[in-house]
């Protein structure tokens, strides 16, 4: 029986989002209906409602979510009703070239929820990042559900579904931070702060946080940064070199998404160091570097897509570390809100006041 639930919908470009009645169909083959318990508010939700991703309005927003599987369709074996799960926005196919080579984090054919949820008055909804979890219930591909320890709070678990995983994964997966490394993180919003936490988790001995906002640097320090640099007043490349005996950091993580910060990241790394771009650039952005500087420095320039995560491997591990008190994730939940407060949360996010507002259902 299709169910009627409340969900946050962006009807048209730039229009404030509203809570509307959404019809959730029964799960088909390979699908699951999840009762959402918590869903974080991410910049990408705002990008959807601003028409910055595509024009497939109306959208049902929300994609950093955790909840309980309520129903599964035929052929679903990995999850069952009652399982506590984190949702991910890229269920891997298992068949493409990347998957067959054992690197499913680069899957070419990830599949997400099919767009079968509708508004009560008819139009089909496009789920943001294939999830659509600012809703009491949502229909997803079963592969988007990863079972984790239900002792974790839904708010914290949900955040692992996107921004926090992107940051931690940039450090532990893409950057390959190791014990004793020095790491610099440029841009300490939610993603950069998660990279700070990831660098600590991986055993970095020095974690240098760089931002233009002192409030952000204070937070980064409370999450484990050992040094902070305000790049509005201090040249961050020189500061990182000064802090590393003139060499530069082993891994530099850029979490802003601008050519000038990427350039800073490039020059702040050690000769054989790694630069990881996590910040998402816009299509018109360009980066010009003297080839001799690229050639002469070795190391690696990498981008990190979803923290190069494998949900089935990384979500349960990070939840377990969190439950053991070895990974502080509570600090990322700066406030909890109701379903009808998402529009206000966008405004707060814009002002840079919060790490994450999380909708609790
Ligand atoms: N130099 C250093 N820090 C900067 C600069 C700059 N020139 N410009 C902005 N910042 C800082 C901001 O002060 C803020 O702390 O970068 C941080 C960006 O944080 P958020 O706006 O909270 O964004 P976040 O959610 O962390 O995402 C960062 O990663 O995944 C991507 O799409 C995401 O591109 C975005 C980036
Ligand atoms: Zn997100
Ligand atoms: Zn694949």
Automatic annotation (TrEMBL):
Keywords: Metal-binding, Oxidoreductase, Zinc. It holds the Pfam family ADH_N. Residues 14-359 form the Enoyl reductase (ER) domain. SMART domains: PKS_ER (SM00829). Its cofactor is Zn(2+). Its EC number is 1.1.1.306. The keyword Mitochondrion does not apply. GO terms for molecular function: mycothiol-dependent formaldehyde dehydrogenase activity. SUPFAM superfamilies: GroES-like, NAD(P)-binding Rossmann-fold domains. The keyword Cytoplasm does not apply. Belongs to the zinc-containing alcohol dehydrogenase family. This is S-(Hydroxymethyl)mycothiol dehydrogenase. It comes from Streptomyces phaeoluteigriseus. The lineage of its organism: Bacteria, Bacillati, Actinomycetota, Actinomycetes, Kitasatosporales.
């Amino acid at each position: 029986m299709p169910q009627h639930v409340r969900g946050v919908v962006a009807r048209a470009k730039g229009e404030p989002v509203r809570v509307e009645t959404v019809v959730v169909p029964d799960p088909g083959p390979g699908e699951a209906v999840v009762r959402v318990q918590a869903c974080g508010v991410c910049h990408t939700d705002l990008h959807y409602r601003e028409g910055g991703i595509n024009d497939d309005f109306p959208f049902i927003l929300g994609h950093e979510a955790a909840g309980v599987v309520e129903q599964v369709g035929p052929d679903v074996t990995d999850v069952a009703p009652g399982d506590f799960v984190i949702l991910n926005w890229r269920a891997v196919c298992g068949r493409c070239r990347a998957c067959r080579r054992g690197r499913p984090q680069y899957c070419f054919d990830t599949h997400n929820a099919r767009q079968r949820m509708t508004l009560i008055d008819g139009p089909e909804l496009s789920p943001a990042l294939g999830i659509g979890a600012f809703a009491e219930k949502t229909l997803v591909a079963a592969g988007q559900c990863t079972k984790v320890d239900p002792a974790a709070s839904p708010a914290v678990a949900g955040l692992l579904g996107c921004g926090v995983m992107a940051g931690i994964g940039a450090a532990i997966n893409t950057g390959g931070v190791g014990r004793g490394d020095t790491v610099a993180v440029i841009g300490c919003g939610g993603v950069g702060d998660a990279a700070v936490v990831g660098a600590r988790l991986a055993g970095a001995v020095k974690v240098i946080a760089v931002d233009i906002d002192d409030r952000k640097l204070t937070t980064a320090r409370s999450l484990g940064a050992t040094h902070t640099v305000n790049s509005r007043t201090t040249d961050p490349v020189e500061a990182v070199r000064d802090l590393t005996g003139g060499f530069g950091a082993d891994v530099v993580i850029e979490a802003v998404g601008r050519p000038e910060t990427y350039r800073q990241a490039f020059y702040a790394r050690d000769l054989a160091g790694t630069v990881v771009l996590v910040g998402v650039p816009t299509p018109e952005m360009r980066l010009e570097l003297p080839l001799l500087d690229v050639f002469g420095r070795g190391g690696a320039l990498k981008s990190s897509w979803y923290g190069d995560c494998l949900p089935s491997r990384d979500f349960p591990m990070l939840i377990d570390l969190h439950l053991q008190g070895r990974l502080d994730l509570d600090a990322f939940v700066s406030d909890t809100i109701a379903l009808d407060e998402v529009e206000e949360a966008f405004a707060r996010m814009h002002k840079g006041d919060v790490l994450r507002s999380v909708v609790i259902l």
